[in-house]
Design goal:
hpI Integrase, Chain A; 340 residues; 55% helix; mainly alpha; DNA polymerase, domain 1; 17 helices; 3 domains
Length: 340
């Protein structure tokens, strides 16, 4: 091949020598097959150049992890306040303590680096999995915007949770709690206590539910998807004991607005103290509901629907603990005339 004088000048104008141009051509040809069906060697080299150019441009089209976190948080502004608080808390902790990776281009961050961040900041399985979920959402946001190719968090398995056994509330303590809540200074908590105990509604869900969600005629409680912890709506049976409690103790029929009173956490803690319950396990009333429900009604499928679980696995492995619950106590638990 003869290189003309004008080609020689053009090569130098590109900032490389003729020797460099020859060396690059040789390296390119060495990476091309000598023959490929239907494609000339020259066209194949051109294809490699085009693909390489595209890959380099994609590599340059990215943002730092810090910038991706900011965009991801803005896109989730419509989530529930508690969810937003958790997203902001985890994100802030990662960015403040891991400044090196926070300033790295999103596209260049590897699974091993993410694993290191999660292991350093979130030592327990539950914390680790929450941190993993937040990072997963950040990289998913990056994928949508074209800032990274693939989500490195997918290569990191969740840590296995060792669920501790939660016993149902003892019979005597159920009585103490229901007795204390009927005192005048605690009566505002009576409706929400009834929903947690006889409908298995979580405390966070009870804080969002309204009187209008109770269908007195149909005998059920509608928990909308926006109020549910899992994001799925469910319809819970308004058991006769709960209906009587809401009507006689709480004057429920005809009421509107929020069921849960203001300053809920402070009032709830004071009620438990006045009832003589210094120790308290989270979600114990939901576990109590599940255990007494199965002991009395003996219908696992119905209980699964009431709890809003997609399968019965969680009920069998974590919720159901009927140790110490007699059939007589289970009958009285659901008796409309036992408590009011």
């Amino acid at each position: 091949m003869i290189i003309k004088n004008e080609d020689h000048k053009w090569i130098y104008s590109m900032g490389i020598t003729l020797e460099d141009a020859v060396r690059l051509s040789r390296e390119l040809l060495e990476r091309c097959p000598k023959s490929k069906k239907g494609v000339s060697r020259l066209n194949y080299c051109r294809k490699i150049i085009e693909e390489g150019d595209r890959a380099v441009k994609e590599e340059e089209q990215t943002v730092t992890l810090r910038e991706a976190v900011e965009v991801s948080l803005r896109e989730r502004e419509g989530r529930r306040p508690s969810t937003r608080r958790e997203l902001h808390y985890v994100s802030k902790r990662i960015l403040q303590s891991q400044t090196r990776i926070a300033s790295k281009p999103l596209r260049s961050i590897k699974p091993s680096e993410c694993q290191g961040v999660l292991s350093a900041l979130f030592p327990t399985p539950r914390q680790f999995n929450k941190g993993r979920t937040v990072l997963h959402s950040v990289f998913a946001c990056g994928e949508r915007h074209g800032w990274c190719k693939g989500n490195p968090i997918k290569a990191i398995p969740k840590m296995r949770l060792r669920e501790t056994e939660i016993e149902a509330l003892p019979w005597e303590e159920i009585g103490k709690l229901l007795g204390a809540v009927q005192e005048s200074n605690h009566r505002s908590l009576a409706p929400v206590l009834g929903l947690m105990l006889w409908a298995g509604i979580r405390p966070t869900e009870a804080q969002r539910i309204q009187w209008e969600d109770i269908n007195w005629e149909e005998g059920d409680i509608l928990l909308p998807a926006r109020h549910s912890k899992t994001g799925g709506a469910r319809c819970i049976t308004l058991q006769p004991v709960l209906e009587r409690w809401l009507v006689k103790v709480c004057g429920g029929k005809g009421r509107q607005g929020d069921i849960c009173p203001e300053n809920w956490n402070h009032k709830w803690q004071k009620l438990r103290r006045d009832a003589g319950m210094s120790e308290w396990q989270q979600d114990v009333l939901r576990h109590t509901f599940a255990s007494y429900h199965l002991k009395h009604f003996r219908d696992l499928s119905q209980l699964q629907i009431e709890m809003g679980h997609s399968t019965s696995h969680l009920l069998r492995t974590r919720y159901l603990n009927m140790r110490g619950i007699t059939r007589e106590h289970a009958r009285l638990f659901w008796s409309p005339r036992e408590w009011c």
